[in-house]
Structure formats: C-alpha cells, structure tokens
UniProtKB/TrEMBL annotation:
SMART domains: HATPase_c. Keywords: ATP-binding, Chaperone, Cytoplasm, Nucleotide-binding, Stress response. It comes from Clostridium acidisoli DSM 12555. This is Chaperone protein HtpG. InterPro entries: HATPase_C_sf, HATPase_dom, Heat_shock_protein_90_CS, HSP90_C, Hsp90_fam, Hsp90_N, Ribosomal_Su5_D2-typ_SF.
C-alpha cells in the first residue's frame, strides 16, 4: 500500500517532535486524553440532541492500557470516531489551533519552551513513540480504518475491524536512551500521576486496570495480585470546584490544557453566580495578544456549556468586541441543550449572562488598574488598542463603559496615565485635557506646537497609535473636561489678544502675500500664539487634524481628504525680520522664503513635501 506524505507544515512540526530535545515530553498524554475527551463531548452532545441514540453519560470513558512486554501504550475512547477522510484530514495536517504559526514566530527566540507552553496536539505523541497506530470507527459507520505512521515518511490508511464506535490510539513506545527513560510511560504509577497532574478535571472517567494485592483466601499472611479497574481522575470540572480548593497553578494548567494561549494568563477570574440565571464561569485575561488577534481571522468567544456539556466552542455573544481578548467558559444549567445558534442569540438568559460578564471583566480590570499597576500596564500593552477601537467603533456607543480603562503617555509623568490621573493633576486655570499626536514619543517631545502648553506647566497626553485621536474625538470630553489638540487653531489660553491683533493688523498684507504664494496649500497664514523658539508650525482648524489626515491617507479607500492647515508664524523669532525685509525689498525672495518655511513646517509634522528638489535648491539659494 502506498505511503502518503504529510502536508508540508505538518512535516515540519513532526520533525520538531521527533527530534525534540524538550524535557516536557510527558505532555503527550494530556494531548491524547484531551482529544479523546473532545471526541466524547461530540458524541455525548449528539446523543442528547438526537433521540435515536440512547447513550448515558456513564457509558462514556477513556481507557489507558500500558503493555510493558510489547512496549505499547493504548488510549481508547468511545467518542465520535473518525471516518477515513477525517483520519486523513485531521491527522495528516496540522490542526488550525494556531500553534504552528506561533512556533514559526518564536523559532528565533532562544529558550522558548514552545511545547510546554501550548497545545501541540496529536503529533506530540511522536516525542515518545517510534510508531503510532490509530484505529477508528465513526458514529453511523460500519467500516473502521487503521491509520499508521512511523513519523516523517508519512502514513498509511487501510480498512480494519473494530467492534465499537470510537478511537484507539496505540503508541509503540521508544527504547530507553542514556538521557531518556521512555519506560516510565509504561509504568502504572507514573501514568497515574501524569493523569492527576494534567487531566484531573476531564469530565469522563479515565480508567486503567490497576494491579492490586489482597490476602489470599484462607491465608493470614500470603498476598496475591489481582487487577481492578480504577478511575484515575476526579472528573469534577475545575469551574465547578470551590475557589478555595484551587491554586493559581490550577488555573494556569487549565488555561494551557484548553489551548487558550501559549503563555500563562495574566489573570484568572472565577465566579459562581446564583440568581435568576445561575452559572459558573472562568475567564482569563491573556498576557499577550494571539498572533492573529488584530486580524479578521481572529474569532472572539467563550466556550458555552449547559450543565457540563459543551454546546458551543466560541459563543461570540458572550463578549463585547472591546473585550474580545478574554478567553474562558460559561456553564449554566439554565440553557437548553437543543438550542440552535440563531435562537441562542435571542436567548434572554444568555443576554443576562453576557451583561454580567461584561461588568465582571470591567470591574476586575479596574481593580487591576488600581491595585496592580504593573500588571495593568502589561495588559494594556497587549490590548490597549482593542479598548481604544472599542471607544471609536459602533459610533461611540460603548465609550462610557471603556473610558476609565484607557491609558495614554504623559508628557510630565513620562509613563502611561489614566484620564482620572490626568484630571487630578490639572492646574486650576487649565480648562482642557491637552494632547499631541505624532509618530513617536521622541518626536512629540520636540513638537513646536507644545511649547507654550508645556511652558504653562500643563500636562500633555502623547498619542502615538493611529486610533488614539479618533477615539478621543469620539469621547470629546472626560468628566466634563474637553480634549484639546496641541495643534488646534485655538488652544484656549488667555493670550494677550491686543498685542496679537496689533501684529496681525500690521502684517496683514505680508500674510496675505504669503498665503497667495502658497496657493491654496494653507487656509491662512497667522501670527502664532503658541511658538516660543521655533519659527513656524502648522495648526489646523475644523474636525480633521493633520494626524488624522495622515491616517486616512493610508487607508485603502482613501478619499484624499485634507485637514484645513494654518501656517503659524512666530513674529518674535529673528527670522521674521528677514521676512519683513524681503516683503519690503525683494518679493521674489519672500516667495522662496514662504515655500521654505511651509515645507519646514510640513517636515516637522512628519508630512512629505511635494517637491523636495525645489526645496533643496531654495535652501541653497538662501545660503548663497
Ligand atoms: P486539536 O485537538 O487542537 O484540534 P490535535 O492535533 O490534537 O489538534 O487533533 C487533530 C484532530 O484530530 C482533532 O481536531 C480531531 O478532529 C481529531 N482527533 C484527534 N484525536 C481524536 C479522537 N480520539 N477521536 C476523534 N477525533 C480525534
Ligand atoms: Mg488536541
């Protein structure tokens, strides 16, 4: 029979497994048991919803059978089984679990124990096996199939006999080496302890024939061995356990077992709620965003159980988009098993649960912000963007829920601060929450527009994320304090209006000439109220800021919208004398100066100039 090759990606992961030098080989058992449990879940769920099947929860089991003589370890389940196609597709390819993409990303990082950190699934069995046989018979199928592989070369599939529906996985355990005692995976005691460690919460019994001894009949001192089935796991799902019985490690372990993420979660939230709607929930805040988090592929959702039975793997309705990073599950006895996805969306119970969960997540995050700032900063680094998107999206309808959770970098504190913290530090005469938008903190520190605001001792929030300004525009104010951009035409200061007006009046023709020279590129040329040491800057009028113009320009369907720009001139700067002189004596020179100054202002904003060659020539001409 022809050997079929594994798909390319699988081959590489397999390679990693076979030549693995990881100390954590033992997790293979957890992976196989978790697959068996998933398969039983599917079968059990079917039996509950399909009246033609009469199955009892007690009928389901997973069996572990070590055979020292033949060096095999067999894991049997009476789950849903696999058809020939499923054997081929599910075991011939890497599951979509995302683990592989993660591996690629992290391959370069040294010492990252990827296998210990996330689920590698079925293939992990090759860490301890020379060959693997999978015999499976799918529900509703008379024919069973045998899948066999020795690893890298590929696999073979053929027809076989199997009495019961389900799957049997036979591992041919490797011979011991100097470094590795593979024998222990055939050892009863070791297997028991592995199952206790990794698979205790699996809700179906994991059975093994265990050697016991008893007094021989009629004897007072002679013992004899006998075998008895033992259930090795406690079967109580972790979310049904009492919080007091559980240690942080238990939650971490559960998180890994569930493949919610590949690193320890930042926080586990465990709650049992009794009321009109009763439910148990465990929610996790991951430490890092999954590799696909900010893409369309990412699917939010919590696992949904009805009385311990999984009814949906990703119930999106349980989480608002802005908390889409949350992982975990909800188990409620108040939900019907037979409910369809469409009906579920309108389910009143589910809506109540979703609302409670939203509140719970928010209050936990707020308390983290208050009591464990370092952790919150870490959280914010991973998911702050999502919160800011949340403020902006859905026309700002969720902004009230999220605004307290936002952080921005502060010009005075030199770290991320919350809006509450900003407000608590506002000066008496300060009316607005000031912000400046730019590419990086370093660039913002030098932005001319912020000079006067800083001079007054006001704090400025630095926006470096594309989404920041859009989100803030949606908020418009926080606790009655309006936001104000450092680049906006009017900064809301009491300036010496008289002095300003005088200068404006005096230089009216000059500014008009400059404006005409710039030929529509700026809406106006004005005396600056904000510059101290810099000669010029751009500010803007209207809703659309220069930074927003930049962001919109990068969008695929950009409408080429432009902010209304004002060229502000620092009349106290010595350069202004040269401008005045040119206006009086040499109009051509003033044209050149106007263009150079405008282009300088563009460069300071991080905008590109239309004609760099002309700009360079102009500068040279001025130096001459
Ligand atoms: P994952 O569990 O993350 O999907 P695995 O590599 O562990 O990835 O398993 C791949 C797939 O093989 C599973 O999704 C499942 O469809 C199938 N499978 C594995 N073990 C069993 C089993 N014991 N019974 C039925 N299907 C199984
Ligand atoms: Mg798996």
């Amino acid at each position: 029979m022809a050997t079929k090759e594994f798909k390319a990606e699988s081959k590489r992961l397999l390679d990693l497994m076979i030549h693995s030098i990881y100390t954590n080989k033992e997790i293979f058992l957890r992976e196989l048991i978790s697959n068996a449990s998933d398969a039983i879940d599917k079968n059990y769920y079917r039996s509950l919803t399909d009246t033609n099947i009469s199955f009892n929860k007690d009928d389901f089991y997973i069996r572990i059978t070590p055979d020292k003589e033949n060096r095999t370890l067999t894991i049997t389940d009476n789950g849903i089984g696999m058809t020939k196609e499923e054997l081929e597709n599910n075991l011939g390819t890497i599951a979509k679990s995302g683990s592989f993409a993660f591996k690629n990303e992290n391959e370069a990082k040294e010492g990252v124990d990827i296998i210990g950190q996330f689920g590698v699934g079925f293939y992990s069995a090759f860490m301890v096996s020379d060959s693997i046989i999978v015999k499976s018979r799918a529900v509703n199928s008379e024919q069973a199939y045998k899948w066999e592989s020795k690893g890298a070369e590929g696999y073979e599939i053929e027809n076989t006999e199997k009495e019961a529906v389900g799957t049997e996985i036979i591992l041919k355990i490797k011979e011991n080496t100097d470094d590795e005692k593979y024998d222990e995976y055939l050892d009863e005691y070791k297997l028991k302890s592995l199952i206790k460690k990794y698979s205790d919460f699996i809700k179906y019994p994991i059975k093994m024939l265990v050697k016991k001894s008893k007094l021989k009949e009629g004897s007072e001192k002679d013992y004899e061995d006998y075998f008895e089935d033992e259930i090795l796991n406690s079967m109580v799902p972790i979310w049904r356990k009492n919080k007091n019985e559980l240690k942080p490690e238990d939650y971490d372990q559960f998180y890994m077992d569930k493949h919610f993420g590949y690193e320890k979660p930042l926080k586990a939230i465990h709650a049992s709620v009794e009321g009109i709607t009763s439910y148990n929930t465990i929610l996790f805040i991951p430490a890092n965003a999954p590799y696909d988090f900010y893409t369309k592929e990412f699917q939010k959702g919590l696992e949904l159980y009805s009385n311990g039975v999984l009814i949906m793997e990703k119930c999106a309705d349980l989480l608002p988009d802005y908390f889409s990073f949350v992982q975990g599950l909800v188990d409620s006895a108040d939900l019907s098993l037979n409910i369809s996805r469409e009906l579920l969306q309108h389910d009143r119970q589910l809506k109540i649960i979703a609302k409670n969960i939203k509140g719970k997540i928010k209050s936990e995050l707020l308390s983290m912000l208050k009591n464990d700032r370092e952790k919150y900063d870490e959280f914010y680094k991973s998911f702050g963007r999502q919160l800011k998107y949340g403020v902006y999206s859905d026309f700002g309808s969720n902004k009230e829920d999220i605004q307290d959770l936002l952080l921005f970098y502060s010009s005075t504190e030199k770290k991320l601060v919350s809006l509450d913290e900003y407000i608590s530090r506002m000066k008496e005469e300060q009316k607005f929450i000031y912000y400046a938008t730019g590419e990086s903190i370093e660039k913002l520190e030098k932005l001319p527009q912020t000079e006067l605001i800083k001079d007054k001792g006001f704090e400025i929030l630095y926006f470096t994320d594309d989404i920041d300004e859009f989100a803030i525009k949606m908020l418009t104010k926080y606790k009655e304090k309006e936001f104000k951009s450092a680049s906006s035409g009017d900064l809301g200061f009491e300036v010496d209006e008289k002095e300003n007006q005088k200068e404006t009046e005096e230089n009216k023709d000059l500014f008009e000439f400059m404006k005409e020279t710039l030929n529509g590129k700026v809406k106006d040329v004005r005396v600056s109220k904000r510059l101290k040491n810099h000669p010029v800057c751009l500010s803007n009028e209207g809703e659309l800021s220069i930074e927003m113009e930049k962001v919109l320009k990068m969008m695929p369907d950009n409408q080429n919208v432009k902010a209304d720009k004002i060229l502000e001139i620092n009349t106290n700067h010595e350069m202004f004398a040269a401008i005045k002189q040119a206006f009086a004596e040499d109009k051509d020179k003033l044209k050149m100066l106007s263009n150079v100054l405008y282009n300088q202002a563009l460069l300071i904003e991080g905008l590109s100039i239309d004609d760099p060659v002309q700009f360079a020539n102009d500068v040279c001409n001025l130096i001459k």
